[in-house]
Amino acid sequence: MKGIFIVKKKRVILLMVDTLMDETLQQAISKGEAPTIKLLMEHGTYIPDVVSSFPTMSVNIDSTLITGLYADKHRIPGLCWYDTNKNKVINYGTGVKEIMKYGLGHVLNNLYGHLNNRHICTKTTTIHEQLDEKKILTASLNSFIYRGNYLQRLKFPIWLANGFQFEEQINISAPYYFSLGSMKKIKDENNLNWRFFVGDNKNVVRELQYLIKNDLLPIFTVAYFQDLDMKIHKYGPAYTKGVKKVDKRLKQLFHSFTSFEQALEENIWIILSDNGQTPIGNSKHEHLIDLRNHYYKYKIAKVRKGGRIKPSDEVLISVNQRMAYIYTLNKKICTDELVSQVKDDRRIDLIVCNAGDGIKVYEGGKETEFYFKRGGKLTDEYDQSWSIQGDESIVDITLNNNHISYGSFPDALRRLEAAMNSHDGNFIIINARPGYEFIAEKTPHHLGGAAHGSLYKRESLVPLIFTGTNLQPPFKRIVDIKQWLMQIIEKELNL
Ligand SMILES: [Zn+2]
Asked: What is the pLDDT of residues 359-394, one digit of tens each?
């Protein structure tokens, strides 16, 4: 052991690496491209298959992470959804064309203002709020989901705010230490990033280094590394260079300490991903499922400024890459009718709708159906109990002595139930088979690249690496991470 360390309270540092996948990480390690992550794995615990939430879209997953609840409780259904009560589409930033059509102000206000201030259910408590109640300060660096107890301000350039007609400043409730893109920085307010709306990995490491070197690092920090997601979207999960770049940044971060041993001694390090991605085929006609073709006989709501809906609109499509919510806006069109329009498409593997007090699931191109509801004599690996009827092969579950095991769709029943109850409205959920992605008007796509959003395991299972504690999450799911973090802070740090 090098040097003498001053004994002080350990810190918990959660590094969220967007779209870090076990398969990419293992390849990067075998090529010698991820030495820092490898070292952390050797000094800690590695769990390759933590279950994410559904839809596998960051805003939903990160809300699950910091509230410890699924979408039926935190109420963030995805990156794009329809707010029945306000009668408008909520878009947090899907693609440039779609954003410009909804209006930049609409998207920025939703993403930075309403998402945290209003949309995440106010009855939930985030980890930042819970720790603050115990007088423990926290930090949120570069995360879109950050609700905390301190007034912070996100600032936009005047020319941008005036040009796109939105407020130059958004007041938010966030943790004590808070940083997001160039809108709010801890270290250097005037140093603008080339990526204004979300900081790059370089910026996150600079902010972390600043907190470490100035002895400001609070007991709990969550820092987001967002860059890898875009690279995997473009090049697919085999792109190990993206992991190599993350690893290089982590190496820089560890250089803020006198030694790697000191970094490990003084902190509990956790690396976690939020979702994986599935490769999308190359054929525009085959691999992009244009949902306007399935619902052509209805009046589909157009993408309009401010997410406005017209009284004559009958059906609304909210695409979240490989999953979509389809809404009926007309009382004469029932959800069964929405189901029947997509039922013959073999590229869709799950078609889900509410049925009485339970949920019905169909498979595209198949005649059978499956029904499930909460409660009953069957239990699954997460101690959840269920009643089921019909063809369980649709959701790929296996039954053995009243025990449910999941296959292609981890924690399928609970995650489908959560998404179906994530918001009000009459809608169905559809999930694309591997290789396919949904599109509608102006939706971005990832032809020949990779995408996420679905319930499928390649997008749902993410790696977790941690050092400095033998405590394990109660279950290997992101929904259980908050409880685990609280345990670490209480038991390892005695706080
Ligand atoms: Zn993504």
From this structure: 999 999 999 999 999 999 999 999 999 999 999 999
- Quote the CA–CA distance of 301 and 441 in Å, as a whole number: 10
318 CA → ligand 1 middle, Å = 16
Ramachandran angles phi, psi of 185, nearest 5°: -125, 155
Quick one: average pLDDT of 92-120? 87
- Give the distance (Å) from ligand 1 centre to CA of residue 316: 23
Residue 4's pLDDT band (boundaries 50, 70, 90)? Answer: very low
CA–centroid distance, 165 to ligand 1, in Å, is 28
Residue 141: inside a domain: yes
Report the separation in Å between the CA atom of 229 and the middle of ligand 1, taken as the mean of its atom positions: 5
Q: How far is the CA of 279 from the centre of ligand 1 (A)?
A: 12
Q: Name the pairing type of β-strands 267-272 and 461-466.
A: antiparallel
Per-residue pLDDT at 156:
85
Domain that holds residue 40: 11-76+120-277+456-492
Query: Ligand 1 centroid to 69 CA: how many Å?
Result: 21
| Ligand 1 centroid distance, CA of 155 (Å) | 25
Same domain, 147 and 243: yes
Q: Is the pLDDT of residue 2 over 70?
A: no
Q: Does residue 428 register a pLDDT over 80?
A: yes
Residues 304 and 261 in one domain: no
**Peptide bond between residue 434 and the one before it cis (omega within 30 degrees of 0):** no
Both tokens of 236, joined, read 């697919």
196 and 311 housed in the same domain: no
Q: Does 114 reside within a domain? A: no
- Overall domain count for the chain: 2
Choose the final residue of a domain: 415, 430, 448: 448
Q: Are residues 270 and 361 in the same domain?
A: no
**263 in helix, strand or coil?**
helix
Same domain flag for 134 and 171: yes
46 in any annotated domain = yes
Regarding whether 469 and 393 lie in a shared domain, the answer is no
Q: Pairing mode, if any, of strands 288-290 and 437-439?
A: parallel
Domain with residue 232: its CATH number is: 3.40.720.10
Question: Rounded CA gap, 184 and 92, in Å?
Answer: 18
Q: How far is the CA of 452 from the centre of ligand 1 (A)?
A: 6
Is the pLDDT at 8 greater than 80? The verdict is: no
Q: Pull the structure tokens for residue 168.
A: 């130059």
Write down which residue in 431, 448, 465 finishes a domain. 448
Answer yes or no: is 3 within a domain. no
Mean of per-residue pLDDT scores for the chain = 94
Torsion of Cα atoms, 453 then 454 then 459 then 462, to 10°: 80
